[in-house]
């Protein structure tokens, strides 16, 4: 019985699809069906690696993806309570090491990458539709005394979940629209990006707005200043139509935008709490500069390093849930969370891995441009999508950290960026280059030639095409 051509993507696509399932009531963000699917994905990749008996990753990919292990494990061992740090070790390894590596091993070529990117856009459209319905019917999460905040199926305890998924969809659609040469794909990407702008606005997530604007602006700049100006004007006109013309959240959006700059003069409670927790994380680092206070240690040491300006928690309600007092268990800044819990060693290894990944992704985009394999003024869609998603995540980490059901999608995004950075590609008219062993496509869509077997791997048959039995 023939195997479907994209059957190997089923475990990966299952992770994306299962993110549409509402998390269990009272879930803290782990133990969802999407997390279980990510574990299945990792196990499938491990079985395939053992079966094939080949080196799955290049040395560069293994070093970049494996670098966080050093800081994570060191912080756990040096923690005052190593047993309490074990759940944090599992979560960090899942998000920053295992799932990204599994994505690199699963995606084989640019067509696989396109399927994954469109699946993310599809998830964003589904979550965005739920969010817009919540805003229009007043059944969303509580915001400024009204149940109008769009949160999708993630609930009021994870108000960043839908905003993150929708922002991923917008960035992916932007990369496809800028990099594809097919008019049909470009049109659909533009339509999807325009539709997703509405739920992003009514999510009232300032961090998601800033990260999306930064990522899309970078992609436009990479594709040329003239195009960036044209698209920027079009996006500005769309924003005027949505907010000023159609009145989509105009009053609340204006107040939310104005609050971005109110960090010293009359900031709101969420801003005050955030800066207080940032100071607390910095205090933990000063107390334990090299290895931090240990994974999962921020809640335990928070009060001893925070000022009296910190409130006891945030109020959540709406979206089918009753009133609940949500404790503040993280500083809402991934870099400061790593610095406080893992110290300078953790920041250098974990954040250093992200920066190395970004450098490799940008270098490959530059190599593709210099190779002249595309029409002048364009870059491959898969490269733009990968770079855009990675930049979005790195910017958003300044306002958020891992936590909630959508965290597993962050791991997939890092994996997509790693695939683009390390999968082999072949310049036009040249031999295959690159250091990875995954991926069979090139930046132009031309299939790569046969790859010589590695040492210890069985030799390919002498003749191609005919199959002898």
Describe this structure in words.
- The protein has about 475 residues and is mainly α.
- It has one domain.
- It contains 15 helices and 4 strands.
- The chain has helices at about 10-20, 35-50, 60-80, 80-105, 110-135, 160-180, 185-200, 205-220, 225-245, 250-260, 270-285, 300-305, 335-370, 380-395, 405-420; strands at about 140-145, 145-150, 315-320, 320-325.
- Strands 1-2 form a two-stranded antiparallel ribbon.
- Helix 1 (about 10-20) packs parallel to helix 5, helix 2 (about 35-50) crosses helix 4 (about 80-105) and helix 13 (about 335-370) packs antiparallel against helix 14.
- The radius of gyration is 23 Å and the shape is globular.
Based on Cα principal axes, name the global outline.
globular
Assess the beta-strand content as a share of residues.
under 5%
- Whole-Å distance between the termini? 16 Å
Strand order of the largest sheet: 1-2
Number of domains as seen in the coordinates: 1
* Largest sheet composition: 2 strands, antiparallel
Q: Return the average pLDDT rounded to an integer.
A: 81
Per DSSP, the total helix count is: 15
Q: Which value, in Å, is the CA radius of gyration?
A: 23 Å
Low-confidence stretches: 426-469
Following the backbone from N to C, one meets helices and strands in this order, namely HHHHHEEHHHHHHHEEHHH
Helix content: 55-70%
Structural class by SSE content = mainly alpha
The tally of beta strands, per DSSP, is 4
């Amino acid at each position: 019985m023939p195997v479907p051509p994209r059957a190997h993507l089923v475990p990966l696509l299952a992770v994306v699809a299962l993110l549409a399932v509402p998390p269990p009531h009272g879930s803290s963000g782990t133990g969802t069906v999407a997390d279980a699917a990510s574990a299945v994905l990792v196990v499938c990749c491990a079985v395939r690696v053992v079966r094939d008996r080949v080196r799955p990753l290049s040395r560069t990919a293994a070093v970049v993806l494996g670098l966080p292990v050093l800081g994570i494990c060191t912080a756990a061992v040096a923690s005052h309570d190593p047993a309490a740090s074990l759940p944090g070790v599992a979560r960090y390894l899942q998000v920053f090491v295992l799932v990204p590596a599994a994505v690199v091993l699963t995606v084989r070529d640019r067509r696989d990458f396109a399927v994954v990117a469109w699946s993310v856009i599809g998830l964003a459209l589904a979550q965005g539709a739920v969010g817009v319905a919540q805003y229009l019917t007043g059944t969303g999460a509580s915001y400024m005394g009204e149940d109008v905040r769009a949160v999708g199926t993630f609930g009021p305890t994870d108000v960043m979940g839908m905003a993150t998924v929708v922002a991923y969809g917008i960035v992916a659609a932007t990369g496809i629209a800028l990099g594809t040469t097919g008019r049909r794909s470009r049109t659909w990407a533009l339509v999807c990006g325009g539709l997703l702008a509405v739920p992003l606005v009514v999510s009232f997530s300032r961090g998601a707005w800033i990260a999306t604007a930064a990522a899309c602006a970078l992609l436009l700049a990479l594709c040329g200043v003239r195009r960036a100006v044209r698209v920027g004007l079009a996006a500005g006109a769309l924003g005027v139509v949505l907010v000023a013309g159609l009145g989509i959240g105009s009053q609340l959006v204006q107040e939310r935008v104005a609050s971005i700059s109110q960090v010293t003069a009359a900031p709101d409670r969420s801003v005050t709490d955030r800066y207080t927790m940032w100071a607390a994380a910095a205090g933990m680092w000063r107390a334990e500069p090299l290895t931090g206070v240990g994974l999962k240690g921020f809640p335990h040491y928070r009060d001893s390093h925070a000022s009296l300006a910190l409130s006891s928690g945030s109020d959540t309600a709406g979206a089918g849930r009753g009133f609940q007092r949500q404790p503040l268990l993280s500083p809402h800044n991934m870099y400061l969370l790593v610095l406080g819990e893992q110290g300078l060693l953790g920041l250098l290894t974990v954040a250093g891995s992200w920066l190395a990944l970004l450098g490799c992704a940008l270098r490959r985009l530059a190599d593709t441009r210099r190779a002249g394999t595309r029409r002048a003024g364009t870059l491959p869609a898969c490269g733009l999508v990968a770079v855009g998603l990675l930049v979005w995540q790195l910017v958003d980490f300044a306002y958020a950290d891992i936590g909630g059901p959508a965290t597993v999608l962050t791991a997939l995004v890092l994996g997509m960026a790693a695939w683009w950075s390390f999968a082999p590609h072949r310049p036009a008219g040249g031999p295959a280059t690159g250091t990875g062993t995954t991926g069979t496509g090139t930046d132009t869509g031309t299939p790569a030639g046969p790859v010589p077997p590695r040492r210890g791997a069985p030799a390919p048959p002498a003749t191609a095409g005919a199959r002898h039995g």
